[in-house]
Write a structure and sequence with these properties.
By secondary structure, this protein is mostly helical. The protein is 71% helix and 0% strand. The chain has one domain. Helix 3 packs antiparallel against helix 4.
């Protein structure tokens, strides 16, 4: 019964509801039906191991409940947020009750999708931008975001922004290394695609994930850790060098985010406790705050933000305790992938892109299930 879910997990990053609304709606209906069926099966099957750890999802459930008022007041954005986050929460609950063999297959599906995404991004860099330039010249188009991306050659396909692509690939990199002896071929695709997205925020998040790994790992990797950290520093420096001027430059991005945060802070003042409702955080410059916690505070108020923060702190605390007890570096890599997403969302908005946030919820379910991946070999056919 797991096969349909694995197929849907693999397809999730490829289907952007912003670019393909009809396909996104069909996919979401199929996903919800599959999750509902599997949840019913696991909850009804007494042979499935009971998981007391699923109590960790209580704050996440409260977070979902905090979205309900926006959805029930005819707010289309609130309803969309509720449905997508409910799908993610359901996936997290489902995976939290799975054994290590199933969670390993879910990781394979995510990383296989990452390799496929990387192929599309590399194709865009070597061929897609040329086709785009020809199309724009033929139709006498100039200026706008398309011209900025064309000038900087920042890959973004199949996502709507380069930062979203890089944020997704930054999560996949440590996942690909978890319990896998054949990670190199996929990483040779994923890492170049990640660099060509030229996302400073994603590079900084990956750097923080690297720091987290070597601060919690029991293995004595002092020299190796230094080498990896230096390499990560080179990656970030390369992002600065590769970025072009104009609206795609790091300085412009930083200035824009500071403007977003100031504007959102003014909106929060109007209703700091109850929030303004999901979808009502848009300022004059952007529909997103480019900071997950500021946007949740603006839309859901203190209760929704506190519930979400409680879920993060609770999950992170239990994950760190498990890492200290077990010394499992593969589990630690999964935790790093989960954390990288959160760090990236301090300056971006991929939490509100369901094709990425759904993967984060899945990784959270894997963390809660506490699988021992050290004894699971990598499938030879995996990308």
């Amino acid at each position: 019964m797991l096969t349909p879910l694995l197929i849907l997990i693999f397809l999730r990053p490829f289907i952007s509801p912003e670019a393909f609304p009809a396909a996104g709606a069909i996919y979401l209906n199929l996903l919800l039906a599959c999750l509902c069926a599997l949840l019913c099966f696991l909850l009804a099957d007494k042979r499935e191991r009971g998981k007391a750890e699923t109590a960790s999802l209580l704050p996440a459930a409260l977070f979902i409940i905090a979205i309900l008022p926006s959805a029930f007041h005819g707010n289309a954005d609130g309803a969309a947020l509720l449905i997508n986050q409910l799908a993610g929460f359901s996936a997290c609950l489902l995976v939290s009750r799975m054994d290590k063999e199933r969670t390993s297959r879910i990781i394979d599906a995510i990383t296989a999708a990452g390799a496929g995404i990387a192929v599309i991004a590399l194709y865009q860099y070597f061929y897609g931008f040329g086709h785009l330039a020809e199309y724009m010249a033929k139709n006498e188009m100039s200026g706008g975001i398309a011209s900025d991306y064309l000038g900087s050659k920042r890959v973004f396909a199949p996502f709507v922004t380069s930062n979203a692509l890089a944020g997704f690939l930054a999560m996949v990199i440590p996942l690909r290394m978890a319990g896998r002896k054949t990670a190199l071929p996929s990483l040779l695709l994923i890492i170049p695609a990640f660099l060509l997205a030229k996302s400073l925020g994603a590079a900084a998040a990956l750097f923080c994930g690297t720091l987290l790994f070597f601060s919690l790992s029991r293995n004595k990797f002092r020299k190796t850790a230094l080498a990896v950290l230096l390499l990560a520093g080179v990656f970030i420096a390369a992002v600065f060098v590769l970025r072009s001027t104009g609206s795609q430059s790091p300085g412009f991005s930083l200035h824009s985010r500071l403007a977003y945060w100031k504007e959102i802070a003014l909106i929060i003042k109007n209703s700091p406790v109850c929030g303004n409702g999901a979808g009502n955080c848009a300022g004059s410059a952007s529909s997103f705050a480019h900071n997950l916690f500021l946007q949740l505070w603006c839309e859901l108020g203190i209760p929704g933000t506190a519930a979400f923060a409680w879920f993060i702190i609770s999950t992170a605390g239990k994950a760190c305790a498990h890492i200290r007890r077990s010394g499992d570096d593969n589990y630690l890599l999964i935790f790093c992938a989960w954390t990288i997403f959160l760090v990236h969302n301090l300056a971006d908005f991929t939490f509100f892109l369901p094709q990425i946030s759904f993967i984060w919820w899945l990784i959270g379910g894997i963390l809660i299930s506490k699988p021992d991946l050290t004894k699971i070999p990598a499938p030879s056919a995996s990308p």
